[in-house]
Amino acid sequence: MDIEAIYKSHEALLEGHFLLSSGYHSSRYLQSAKLLESPKVAKTLTDELSTKITQANLNIDTICSPAIGGLIAGFSLATSMEKRYIFTERVSLNMQLRRGFDIKQGENILICEDIITTGGSAMECAVVLESMGANIVGFACLANRGFCKTTQDSTASKPNCTLYSHLPLFALGNIRIDMHEADNCPMCKDGGTQAIKPGSRAN
Ligand code: ZN
After folding, report:
1. Does residue 142 belong to any structural domain of this protein?
2. Inside any domain, residue 75
3. Which of 162, 163, 169, 184 minimizes the number of CB atoms within 10 Å of its CB?
4. Which residues contact 188 (CB under 8 A, 6 or more apart)?
């Protein structure tokens, strides 16, 4: 499955000059919500992801996503795998488990995102669940940005990957996108355009 081609064909791989939430600038941006507006597409993708995960024979009770980005991918994966589904969310920047969701001691949880870049939100989600007694068994995403090592990759994670290195990361594939520090962005240096925050306007 060519996940980059799928994002492109659904106009979910945007080209431009973007300001990412990390502060970095990039010329391409993945808008997973646009891809997942079709539940049928979402199901096709997570059925495939489910197959990969099932082959690893993990013991999974529950799938959990960090809101908002991971919600649709995670719910669809839980549907494909017939697992319980919960999510964490930010309250004043702190990741929390709310909505009456509870965690059993030793509950085996797989964390699912739409995109894994360095894994920051996924790890915040993992830490909250672990503090409540969960056992995190792995991570999953539709597309990996190439900073973290997936189960298919032969090369190691880059130093800025924050995911637990002893746990597997399942992805449909990698979509590598360069990021530039704001002070060192070639598009800013060329002049003309200003970096736009995706989601803030027509994005
Ligand atoms: Zn720039």
Report:
1. yes
2. yes
3. 184
4. 17, 25, 182, 194, 195
